[in-house]
Amino acid sequence: MKTYGVILAGGGGTRFWPLSRKELPKQLLNLTGKDLMVNETIDRLAGNVAKEDILVVTNCTQTELMLEATAGRVSPDHVLSEPAARNTAACIGYAAMEILRKYGDGVMCVLPSDHYIKKTDVYKKVVADAIRTAEETDALVTLGIQPTYPSTGYGYICHEEEKAAGGFWAVRSFVEKPNLEKAKEYILSGEYLWNSGMFFWKASVIMRYFEELLPEVYACLQKIGGAMGTEEEAKVIQEVYPQIPKISIDYGIMERAGKVLVLEGDFGWSDVGSWDALEALYEKDEYGNITYGEQVHIDTHDCIIYAKNKLVTTIGLDNVIVVETEDAVLVCDKNRAQEVKKIVEALQDCNKPQYL
Amino acid sequence: MKTYGVILAGGGGTRFWPLSRKELPKQLLNLTGKDLMVNETIDRLAGNVAKEDILVVTNCTQTELMLEATAGRVSPDHVLSEPAARNTAACIGYAAMEILRKYGDGVMCVLPSDHYIKKTDVYKKVVADAIRTAEETDALVTLGIQPTYPSTGYGYICHEEEKAAGGFWAVRSFVEKPNLEKAKEYILSGEYLWNSGMFFWKASVIMRYFEELLPEVYACLQKIGGAMGTEEEAKVIQEVYPQIPKISIDYGIMERAGKVLVLEGDFGWSDVGSWDALEALYEKDEYGNITYGEQVHIDTHDCIIYAKNKLVTTIGLDNVIVVETEDAVLVCDKNRAQEVKKIVEALQDCNKPQYL
């Protein structure tokens, strides 16, 4: 059976503000210093999915930039444009319908477009296992990341004690971001993995779950599917898509589906959720700093300093994030990188849309 | 006797980098939010010195900007341009010679161009007293600032115990920047004032001291004076000025002259020597911050944040200085503002003249 990459690239990032903007979300940033996050995600599928079988689902506000960014990698007619953001169930359903109607059934590798993976070789092997498992078992397969610390920033997947012969576990439940105490318990139990948001299933299998568990979403997808390949396609998508109920694939299907399996991944994963996550991506210098761009430091330690255009200079700083972009500067306690979204909210509240 | 203002405006500032540059020193900055430092200094003389009797001595690299900045305040032929920086004795001698040869004798009010004074009315009264004292006594008169804390950043003037009827003290000695212990002793003694660098004397009197105490400087000044008003003037200044020995008026004359008097000033003075000095100039907001420009803060206290062009945002900062200009950003521990010059040195060392 053919395998399709489905890259979810419609999110609007606020947590890398001021670098990320409404129309320049994280997936379109080069945070690694190598390539845009979305292109790294695409290239990482090499060996598992043929280049011409990769689809990217993005939001209409980003379509133009996405086409430009992925030119030469993804065929323009494989960049699906959502007329509105309707959460992950909608865009995964849209991609599944596209595959079913236009290319026949296939295994979908559903991947976030803005995650970092250190050990690509290990990743490729696990993805190959996941594709095979999805094809052989007709299950919904997900990758769980072996936790390296009791994170309160990630969701968890609780699995059965015993691993099956295929190297996977049956999933007991999906668990939301825990407090620190719970997170420690999870890790000690050995039965919890981080929820990576990477999913593998046949298009036909997930579509049956839509029909069973999310009938309203399914009805919309049916309308869209009916118009696919006709002259009405664009018009129907434009009309129907915004009516799809907003629900995540986790809440809508994964937590309620009958047959969900998890494969363990241990490939240096990070969702790169905020500026401090750059510490997983870059080598620190001898003073513990991660730096990008033109800089001069005096007695500066354990900082993250990103200079896009200007010279950035520091004196006597510890554990501070400094980010400089065309029109804004952020200076933030490194332990409070999560609060960058509060700046974005404040900018909304005080009506400064030029910075969003 | 006529009174002349002599504003010393030739210094090249590094301590307000990145706002101050080699060709845009502190005196040409608007640090108060009201006007350029040099113009505030000029305007502060109103009532004591007629506008047309104010001279500005600047460095040739800044002459053009200075003429532009002071246009309408100072007659262009009253802006004296030093062909080279030769310290304060040279430029004060040059101005004294200019006054003697072109306007006859007069009392000179020699003032740094980049100091801040909060209580202008008190200042004007003390300056009037100083002018009168200089005229009546033929002494070298200086203003000593009533210390408000044991500063290790200022020089001190030690005076006699007993005040004379004229309201001044005879000066015992000039003292260099002390350590904290010494500074505390000075303050407790009640016989020490901060050296403000403001001097009042007759042009003829200071010229006699040049002749007596700095004969080499005097010889150069004589050559320059001899050419004044002739076609050779510019050429001679260009040739002779760079040969004047480099020495400050404090070392060269004040510390060695026979008759030096000091008047006490208590008018909210600051030499605005580094970024943290802005705390004396601005009202703090309810969180103890001093801010200039477009900003958004979350949980930020006791900071100094200067945003020239861009939006500056902060999260969880205490006692930090953030300065943003066209081409550079500085983020500095507030207690280490003195070290900004080290950044400038580092930029010199790593050959980045565009930032100097």
Short summary:
The structure is a homodimer of 356-residue chains. Chain A is α/β, with parallel strands linked by helices and 356 residues long. Chain A is built from eleven helices and 17 strands.
Given the helix and strand composition of chain A, which structural class is it?
A: alpha/beta
Number of helices of chain A: 11
Name the helicity range of chain A: 25-40%
Proportion of beta-strand residues of chain A? 15-25%
**Strand order, biggest sheet of chain A?**
6-9-7-8-10
Question: How confident is the prediction overall: mean pLDDT of chain A?
Answer: 95
Low-confidence stretches of chain A: none
Task: Identify the quaternary structure here.
Answer: homodimer
Q: Please provide the ordered H/E string of secondary-structure elements of chain A.
A: EHEHEHEEHEEEHEHHHHEEHEEEEEEH
